[in-house]
Design a protein that fits this description.
CATH superfamily: Lipid/polyisoprenoid-binding, YceI-like
Number of helices: 1
Strand content: over 45%
Helix content: under 10%
Order of helices and strands: EEEEEEEEHEEEEE
Structural class: mainly beta
Distance between the termini: 22 Å
């Protein structure tokens, strides 16, 4: 069963799954987070990107839906100015020459656990690789402030820096196998989007 957003319903049931209403949803950057975590020596350093935008087109057939996201690389913030400067530099994101990180979906697949897998092209530092996002639809509701029709979902993935030519590694001089910055990067997205009229 498919329900048009013009009926006022923000969700619908398709093949036993609750999914968003079909339509054009715009990511709300003020209520969206693109966070990351990476090993720094023996602990984990966490940060986020504060400037992003994107569109989600939910199709009548959910598997035909599409997602496009653009993140401004220079908006990276870890709370540590020295770390931020290093991560924005040539060895890592090289924001002077590559201002934008982009993701464009190529496939949406229903997972057996009730979640979704969104496969797409992730471009960082001018290098594009296919990645898979493990995604959960969290629901939709009308905000009491301004009658905005909103939906939310979260997604996670893991990439490696060397996939995107950010492979600079510096090993601890007295502890082999421990690096100042790890290779694996965990990404967590918390997305809120508004249904367009």
């Amino acid at each position: 069963m498919a329900t048009s957003p013009t009926t006022g319903a923000l969700t619908r049931m398709v093949e036993g799954r609750i999914v968003p209403a079909a339509g054009h949803w715009e990511i709300d950057p003020g209520h969206t987070s693109a966070a990351f975590a990476i090993r720094h020596l023996l602990t984990r350093m966490r940060g986020r990107f504060t400037d992003l935008s994107g569109s989600i087109i939910i199709d009548e057939v959910p598997a035909k839906s599409t997602v496009e996201v653009a993140i401004q690389a220079a908006s990276l913030s870890t709370g540590n100015n020295a770390a931020d400067d290093a991560l924005r530099g040539e060895r890592f994101l090289d924001v002077e020459h590559h201002q934008t990180i982009t993701f464009a979906s190529t496939e949406v697949v229903a997972s057996e656990d009730g979640r979704w897998t969104i496969v797409g092209d992730l471009t960082i530092k001018g290098v594009t690789r296919s990645v898979s996002l493990a995604t959960s639809f969290l629901g939709a509701a009308t905000s009491p402030l301004g009658d905005l029709r909103k939906m939310s979902f979260d997604a996670t993935t893991r990439i490696t820096r060397d996939q995107f030519e950010m492979g600079w590694l510096m090993e601890s001089p007295d502890t082999p196998g421990v690096y100042i910055m790890g290779n694996e990067l965990d990404i967590t997205l918390d997305i809120e989007a508004d249904l367009q009229a």
